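Re-run with default settings, no changes from the original entry. Doing this only to confirm the output is reproducible before filing.
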Amino acid sequence: DYYEFVARWKNHPGFDFAIIPDVIDGGEDENEALLDEWPHGEFFGVPVWHMNESDERFIRLCNEYPRVAIGSCGDYDVKRPNLAVARMKDLIRHIIDVHGMPVTKLHGLRMLNPLIFTKLPLASADSTNVARNIGIDKAWSGAYAPASKETRAALMVERIESYNSPGSLAYCEKRDRFDMQLQLAV
């Protein structure tokens, strides 16, 4: 099972962290129970905070764990990147130091869209975008379409890797709060 997998690999030099299991559409109580049963400690375990959960839970997790994963859902799904970014900026401002850097490492789940990760101070992010889209032949048409899935994957990874997350949060309360209200209205 997953806990055994983590136990087997957690001391490998390339192993940085493991996501603590979570209930995606569950409540905070269900996810807190999963944190309590995590057997590998805070150093290896990364709790998931979902954007529809309370601000207080996010702030608490950021003050208790060295890394927190952010999961999108509901109105703040990453399929609506501007709204997701506005929500996260409004929240991250509560967990930054005097230089605008988060007090914990933030990991974005499904956040390798440059419209998202170039605007948030994420330490890491992941996505299934490459695996899901390299096989969609109609998306790869034209004279210069890559022939193999491997080449398609390399192109997608290169495009993602050509961008970086900022080192600190750029937040303007008036502009960013207005932008979030505008996104909710659209």
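The mean pLDDT is 88. The two ends are 43 Å apart (CA to CA).
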